[in-house]
Amino acid sequence: MLRLFRKRPKPREIYFHEDDYCQQQILPASENSSATEELAKISDFSREHRAPGGVGWTDIYVRDGTGPGFSALRMTLQQFEAAIQEFLPRFDTVHTGYSSYRQECKLTGAWGTSDSCCVFADWSQSGIIQNVWTSFFDDSEDSISRSASAVSALASHSPLVYIDWAWDYTVDPGNEEVFIRLLKDKLEAIAENVRSSKQDG
Fold first, then answer.
1. How many domains does the chain have?
2. Residue 35 and residue 29: Cα distance in Å, rounded?
3. Which position among 127, 131, 138, 196 has the lowest Cβ density within 10 Å, counted as fewest Cβ atoms?
4. Distance (Å, whole) CA 115 – CA 34
5. Would you say residue 58 lies in a domain?
6. Domain that holds residue 182
């Protein structure tokens, strides 16, 4: 009788801003060279179009997305989830949008411990993974370890490259030691920037 009054677990929901789509991206290793070239172009463009005073830019760079992408691996949703669910549990629903606007993503999933430690993927109607991206901003040791293990598990199926477009680096996600070092360096730099901003304020 008591079972009738037992509360159901609250659905796990996650949101990503549309600007964050594929900013930390996983692609086939064959795209490492083109990604490195694109990062160099972005860096040059950023330097050439820095706004006077160093705040912002005078133009927007549109990243080249003409490569075959993750879909070239023909990985199914079932294969993808089996690889990472040991490390990152699946969210029930995914939303995206901007400002106060929200919409549910029907063919998109997310696996993680929080909105700052998760892997996103979208797929075709036939269940083939099309794009994979991440949100790795939790600097706890557990989250960093889970993040590294999840992407390494994906890399055990096919050679991959992890690209952080905002922080200007690529890394083999199968090399957990290097992956963790670069991620920690990034998170420490972010934390330091936050501390400096608070002191300046």
1. 1
2. 10
3. 196
4. 29
5. no
6. 22-47+66-200
